[in-house]
Amino acid sequence: MKAGVIAVQGDVSEHADAVRRAAASHGVDADVVEIREAGIVPDCDVLLMPGGESTTISRLLREEGIDEEITVHVHEGKPVLATCAGLIVASRDAKDERVDTIDLLDVTVDRNAFGRQADSFEAPLDVTGLDEPFPAVFIRAPVIDEVGGDVEVLAEWNGDPVAVKQGPVVGTSFHPELTDDARIHDLAFFAQEYAGSDVDVGAEAAE
Ligand code: GLN
Q1: Which of 63, 83, 117, 190 has the fewest CB atoms within 10 Å, i.e. the most exposed one?
Q2: In a domain, 116, yes or no
Q3: 9 C-beta closer than 6 A to ligand 1
Q4: Counting beta carbons within 10 angstroms of the beta carbon of residue 143, is it exposed (0 to 12), middle (13 to 18) or buried (19 or more)?
Q5: Is residue 207 part of a domain?
Q6: Number of domain units in the chain
Q7: Higher pLDDT, 9 or 42
Q8: Among residues 15, 69, 73, 177, which one is catalytic?
Q9: Residue 102, annotated ligand binder?
Q10: What would the pLDDT profile of 154-178 be if each residue is shown by its tens digit?
Q11: Is 183 annotated among the ligand-binding residues?
């Protein structure tokens, strides 16, 4: 499996580790490539859009022409996991003119709604498709405030959606790559098109 991590900015290596762990739990080798230029996304089976700074990430994706390749990837039905700033970039609207969203998920987000860096926190989250709560790390996390009809809410915190899925795209406000628990990566990639839906998600991806 070839997994592309958008690496123009943000927490790249943690996602690479998490996707390798999730793949290994299914006996699959993940060949992880870092994406900083156009031409690589079309070879990838799955994509990860990490956290970081959404203004910077969206600008660089556009400048490099990677944004259109990601859209094609999704139209081909291939999985994407977008976390935190990645979710902001993947949204329909971030209500901030400095963020060029690429509209992979029919949601609007409020950037930094969960507060500044100092307000970061961890919470046990019930997530649809996972048997046990997921230890979710929130860092200056966005709130998802509007959710379109085709979007499934996978998890909520204090009544706000914090994990969503639409077709092959999963988005989280939190950072699933910052724990040793790879079940969100497992859910994003192995519960859907990549490996078929008969896979026992999360069985071994939690450490
Ligand atoms: N709120 C940040 C942004 O707007 C994202 C924070 C994060 O990815 N940890 O880009």
Answers
A1: 117
A2: yes
A3: no
A4: middle
A5: no
A6: 1
A7: 42
A8: 177
A9: no
A10: 999 989 999 999 999 999 999 999 9
A11: no
Closest-CA residue to 186 (of 133, 132, 130): 130
| The one-letter amino acid at 27 | G
Is residue 177 part of the annotated active site? The answer reads yes
Residue 33 sits in which domain range?
A: 2-190
pTM listed for this prediction: 0.92
The enclosing domain of 122 has a CATH number of 3.40.50.880
Q: How far is the CA of 95 from the centre of ligand 1 (A)?
A: 14
In a domain, 68, yes or no: yes
pLDDT band at 120 (very low <50, low <70, confident <90, very high): confident
**C-alpha 42 to ligand 1 mean position (Å):** 26
Instruction: Consult the annotation and say whether 111 binds a ligand.
Output: yes
CA 60 – CA 37 distance, rounded (Å): 9
| CA-CA-CA-CA dihedral for 145, 3, 63, 113, to nearest 10 | 20
Q: Compute the Cα dihedral for 65, 92, 170, 172 and give only its sign.
A: positive
73 is catalytic: no
- Index of the ligand 1 atom closest to the CA of residue 83: 8
ipTM over 0.90: yes
Structural Rg of the chain based on CA atoms: 15
pLDDT at 197 over 50: no
pLDDT at 198 over 50: no
